[in-house]
Amino acid sequence: MGGLSRGAAGVALAAACLAVPTTFAPQANAAIAPTLSVVMTGPTLGTTSIASVGCGQTAQARVQRPDGTPVQSGVVEFTSRLPGLGGNIVGTVPISNGTASILWIPDIAGQHIVSAVYYDGLPDYQPAAGYTNVTAVNLGGVCV
User: Fold this and answer.
1) Angle made by CA atoms 20, 24, 27, in degrees to the nearest 5
2) For the residues 114-127, what does the mean pLDDT come to?
3) Is 108:82 a contact under the CB 8 Å cutoff?
4) Model confidence, pTM
5) The predicted structure's pLDDT at residue 22
6) Backbone φ, ψ for residue 53 (5° rounding)
7) pLDDT in tens, 56-82
8) pLDDT score recorded for residue 143
9) What whole-number distance in Å separates Cα of residue 67 and Cα of residue 62?
10) Which of 47, 28, 27 is nearest to 39 (CA)?
């Protein structure tokens, strides 16, 4: 079977979700469409979302059902990229009470897009994607 790897498919899904608004007709026994939000925590991050190159940050995805309750199954795949350039997979993490978190360390200065794609591999939930922007600055390895 040809096609994209799961990682490449996740990046493609995230790009498609971010670039093209779509409308789906309701279906009988349709899979649940969860929402996904991405936040970052770590040294120097604040309202301006600035991180230091080489300093660890935590990317956290929160996945919720339409009624606001946390999704209990599935995984989230995190990726990072600079606009106009290819990205890399940061890692894949299982959901725990609606949340998945992973360590992310920016390795180059610039505006990074940290994306997350949720999927469960079962017909219960539709995939969901989200992202956040982080500006990485080179402080010579200083983490504040």
Assistant:
1) 160
2) 92
3) yes
4) 0.77
5) 41
6) -60, 130
7) 999 999 999 999 999 999 999 999 999
8) 83
9) 14
10) 47
Distance CA 116, CA 64 (A): 14
Instruction: Quote the pLDDT of residue 29.
Output: 59
Per-residue HEC secondary structure of the chain comes to: CCCCCHHHHHHHHHHHHHHCCCCCCCCCCCCECCEEEEEEECCCCCCCCEEECCCCEEEEEEEECCCCCECCCCEEEEEEECCCCCEEEEEEEECECCEEEEEECCCCCEEEEEEEEEECCCCCECCEEEEEEEEEECCCCCCC
Give dist(CA 68, CA 115) in Å, integer: 21
Buried (b) or exposed (e) across 24-39, using 16+ Cβ within 10 A? Answer: eeeeeeeeeebebebe
pLDDT tens digits, 3-33: 444 454 454 444 444 443 444 444 455 789 9
* Cα distance between residue 68 and residue 13, in whole Å: 23
